[in-house]
Amino acid sequence: MAEILVLVDHADGAVRKPALELLTLARRIGTPSAVVLGAGEAAASVAATAAEYGAATVYVADGAEFSERLVVPKVDALTQIAKEKEVAAVLVTSSGEGKEIAARVALRLGSGLLTDAVELEAGDEGPVATQSVFAASYQVKSRVSRGVPVITVKPNSAAPEAAPAAGTVEDVAVAFTGNAAKVVSRTARVSTGRPELTESAIVVSGGRGVGAAEGFGVVEKLADSLGAAVGASRAAVDAGWYPHANQVGQTGKQVSPQLYVAAGISGAIQHRAGMQTSKTIVAVNKDPEAPIFDLVDYGVVGDLFEVLPQLTEEIGAR
Ligand SMILES: Cc1cc2nc3c(=O)[nH]c(=O)nc-3n(C[C@H](O)[C@H](O)[C@H](O)COP(=O)(O)OP(=O)(O)OC[C@H]3O[C@@H](n4cnc5c(N)ncnc54)[C@H](O)[C@@H]3O)c2cc1C
């Protein structure tokens, strides 16, 4: 079967969930091989997790370059392995960093790039990716017509499924090209304890309807009862009620969770562009004519300050 290279994202020694989703999807189009870069002493446990999710081979490369330099060392490693092993496709998570890595790898391989896939299937002439475009108004199927396809896949596009495989570890000595931006300092982001917005299976977002920064309290309480991430509309972010890092939409983050709850959000096209591929959408809005109700699976017409606390209480009771 065709060898599919999967870049495995990891943090603090743990494999990130989108990487497990990639390994699951890779099995639909060939035999996954994991690429584990800069994991240091955690490499063995990261490799073991990749094997549990179907990696027949795990390519491991280490070196200070991976933490000291941005993006390029990972591009060097992926390109080298893709060339040496003559792989059939390269899969990377659709994050900011992931898309930059993927674009550079595709350029170096002289092949094509597909970004933000939400589904992958095997085709006669190579893997076929489904993308959701024009604010999720259309689904298109695309295939790279020349060279090794490099595809980035949105988090939450598949449920991770374990499928234990050999996970044979191969150490790789990467020939680094240098010339990458150097990291000069690091400041840890203050953790909210909530899941990462783009990776979370559930997102609860608040809009101008929350009325003030303090209004986000009811949104956060509902999110915490569900183990969800908190999102915000641009109107709420522009008003200074919630950080820009949490903005969902065309000029914010793209999310595609299993469940998206929009509270006090009207449903402008630019907001929809960031969340319309969510599997189940719930809206709470006091205006029955709000456009958000055109795309919801469940809609509640009501005041979010009455509805959200009741929902939080009910979830807690269960
Ligand atoms: C180039 C460009 C890029 C943009 N990018 C983004 C983007 O990335 N993300 C984004 O979100 N927007 C973006 N926008 C802005 C977008 O057009 C909308 O202005 C914005 O999404 C509106 O936010 P909102 O729904 O929170 O506010 P509003 O449109 O004002 O809607 C507030 C809603 O809350 C309801 N409401 C009020 N009080 C309550 C209550 N107590 N209980 C329940 N419901 C209540 C109202 O009925 C209303 O429907 C962009 C715009 C432009 C031009």
Describe this structure in words.
It is a single chain. This protein is α/β, with parallel strands linked by helices and 318 residues long. The protein has 2 domains: 3-171, Rossmann fold (3-Layer(aba) Sandwich), CATH 3.40.50; 202-317, Rossmann fold, CATH 3.40.50. 28% of the residues lie in helices and 25% in strands. The chain has 9 helices and 16 strands. The protein has helices at residues 17-29, 43-52, 65-68, 72-85, 96-109, 216-226, 234-238, 269-272, 304-317, and strands at 3-7, 10-11, 14-15, 31-37, 57-61, 89-93, 113-121, 128-133, 138-142, 150-153, 168-171, 202-206, 229-232, 259-263, 280-285, 298-301. It has a 9-stranded mixed sheet, sandwiched between helices. A 5-stranded parallel sheet has the order 13-12-14-15-16. β12, α6 (216-226) and β13 (229-232) form a beta-alpha-beta unit. α4 (72-85) packs across α5 and α6 (216-226) packs parallel to α9 (304-317). The longest helix is centred in the N-terminal third of the chain and has 14 residues, at 72-85. It starts with a strand and ends with a helix. The protein binds flavin-adenine dinucleotide. The site of flavin-adenine dinucleotide has 28 residues, from α7, α8, β15 and α9.
